[in-house]
Design a protein that fits this description.
TolA/TonB C-terminal domain; 2 domains
Amino acid sequence: MFDNLIESKRKRSRSFVQSLTSLVVHGALIFAAITVTKGAAEAVAERVIDTTMMFIKPPEPPPPPPQETPPDVVVSQNPPPKGFQTVVPPKDIPTEIPPVDMNQKPFDPKDFSGKGVEGGVFKGVEGATGPVNVEEAVYTAVELDDPARPISQPSPRYPPVLQSAGIAGRVELQYIVDTTGRAEPGSIKIINSTHKAFEEPAKETVLKSTFKPARFRGQPVRQLVQQAMSFKIGG
């Protein structure tokens, strides 16, 4: 019976020590937590929060594209009549095939339908009396009523080196005579030459020449011309 009483006292003493130790430990932990938290709070309080707001101007929209002005429509006050063309037989039958001109106005079979007014064109206007525009087209001699003819043409300049060496030569040219009777500079082409030195004097001669313009149905027109120019010693 006494043994049981003694054992009970020992348990109460051990429980008191443990409680005291736990109290001290918890107190220390709470103190440490308060200290650390207080320092962090002070550091946060000392921070300066920058609340400056910046407004960025948005980029300006690109300017609208310029409006294209439609070209003026030119309406002829006196258009050509609606009709057809007739084939005129050549006065002189050529013995050679004429060269092909890629710049020549294309042949339109509708202009030779036989319907409408003679001398008109398929795209003409019924009842109109205006002239048919043929100045821009390029014709060959066989297509014309009156082919171009030279009025004046100077003698070609003989290259001094070839002349002193006694070398003769020949140049074949092709060019367009315009409605004023002059050769178009950009149309001059050398078809064949016996020597390069003869080519430039031949071109100079053509540009200095004057012609009677070719005519088609009473109107002056452009004509494709081929010419052979000879360089002879003493000639």
